[in-house]
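Reviewer 2 asked us to include a model.

Predict the structure of this chain.
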Amino acid sequence: MNIFIRELKANRKALIIWSVCMFLGVLSGMSKYTAYSSGANNEVFEKMPSTLKALLGISASFDVTQMSGFFAFLYPYLAVSAGIHAVLLGSGIIAKEERDKTTEFLIVKPVSRKTIITSKLLAALVNVVIVNLVTLVSSVAMVAAYNKGKDITGEVVVFLLSMFIVQLIFLSLGAFIAAFMRNPKAAGSRGAAVLFGAYFISKVTDLTDKVNIINLLSPFKYFSVQNIVNENSLSLGVVVLCILLVAVFSVSTYHFYMKRDLNV
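Predicted model (structure tokens):
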């Protein structure tokens, strides 16, 4: 419990900063909705090349002049931001003692490595939940303030639920990378590189349907934005797959951390 509280306190400042950033991200994005909903940009969108639309996340299957379509357009940017926070948090919370040369703090405590990992991962999970809740509450409030059409609160909740699952994947991935690597200082950059690689893959498959198989390598493509908009639900099979993926990364984190020689 002491390690859990310590990790919460150690990450308090970063949590506040990330929460504020997510709130400002939602606020900034929603503040642009007025211009989109007025239809002033329709002509620009019509003349825009399809490849540029795909890179910007503007799909032909939803209308960005409507709140439902606009939030679907905004969501990927929120998911990437939340994913960056999660992967850096996961890698940092595992590697920081070795990185900062404070491993003695853990070694002298009469607790097992399993307890240490559990406490750290629980603290990281609390941080991820808070960031997600801040984003959810901000999104619901901002959508309600700007929306003049049908209520899409349920749709927003589903979007943020899918984002939470993506956060868990990158959190556990970051922790796994930090536990697996011998150089803890590089864990954060490697985790971020994997995340941006996954995002790049999601954009490549937006441009062409010929390589959709590589979507398996990108958590950002596990949940279809179009399906959330049209059906307001998540695929149970994909959710189960994501849970298994998180479980594999988490178990691997325990395995490699318990076997490794900690750098003092």
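DSSP finds twelve helices and no strands in the chain. Residues 37 and 66 are 6 Å apart (CA to CA). We have added this to the supplementary material.
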